[in-house]
Amino acid sequence: MKAELIVNIIAAHCSGDEKSFKTAVEDLAKDEDNKGNSRVSSMLLDAYKGKNITLMKKPEVVQPMGGCFAVQSAGGGSVKPRDKDSLLELYDIVHSGTSLSDVVLPKNQRKLLIQILEERTNNSKLAKHNLPPANRLLLCGPPGCGKTMTAYAIAHELNLPMAYVRIDGLVSSYLGQTSVNLRKIFSSVGNQNIVLFLDEFDAIAKKRDDGHEMGELKRVVTALLQNFDNMPPNVFLIAATNHEHLLDPAIFRRFNYIINIGYPDADQRSELIQRWFKDYTVETEVDIKKLTDLTANRSVAQIKELVISAAKRYVTTDKPVTMEDMIELLIQQMTNNSNGAGVVDTAAELKAKGVSVRTLAKAIGMPHNTLSYQINKLTNGKEVDE
Description:
alpha/beta; Helicase, Ruva Protein, domain 3
């Protein structure tokens, strides 16, 4: 398409047909604008009108650490594409400071990530054997378990910038515009050595056989698949979702690897709790093993939030954080979370994990006998220990 437009410009100029020349320039400017290159579009129109412009520098091939392919614009980088109607940028450029050592994962998942990184950093060796490096990774799992942090760590380890796609800019209420925005994104990053991160991936990749969805979303998924298939190897795409069961089946086949990051296990929780107590210089009188048991089925984000709350209490009171403090803070967190768990339900859950009713009553601020009765009632008349 672009080559034809340039040919039209040259032909019109050589024939002296001013009207055709103007039309050809405007068509090329419109084509660049549709691709998200609004700066180039403006420069074309300004050049035709005889305005002074700063010529764009010729792209240069660069060799970043950890990779052998890339073409990036010299002198300040390229202009990020925007949604046509909201004018929101479609992605943010992020330079991650998170390393793989910051991410707590099971050994098998860490080993797989290292394998993926080794493929990327040895792509020239693989190319000699016609073996493509992995460039599509899907991260699944509950909220707050480290999917985004893992994506940041990959970008950091590869020493690459990350294009973090903004869902608020990508998804448009106008017919066909979301598909156009997807093309803009993939076209914009296609000549760069970069990590492209699609968070909340289920928003644009839902099952096409869902009867509740309109035809527009089905077209978006089709456009997404087409862009996946045409994506060059220099772009490393990472997608993340909390709802992998909602994804279109055809999506899964497009990924080289799929990693399901779940809640941290006991060893991981213990490591996280001790690391963050140390990072926030919290003086504690806490039984780490007991706290590790109490935080089962809590996400990485929730455990960190719990430790931060403990750090604030330590700073404001100048007293070591006790186990009773941690139980009180845990109850506050559990009763404020999204599932709306009540105080008695939470107390019953913690009692089942070994916390005494007396300790729970003190943390909640409820008379011991009252809480004991409420838990007894909730647990179908089973006797409640002290």
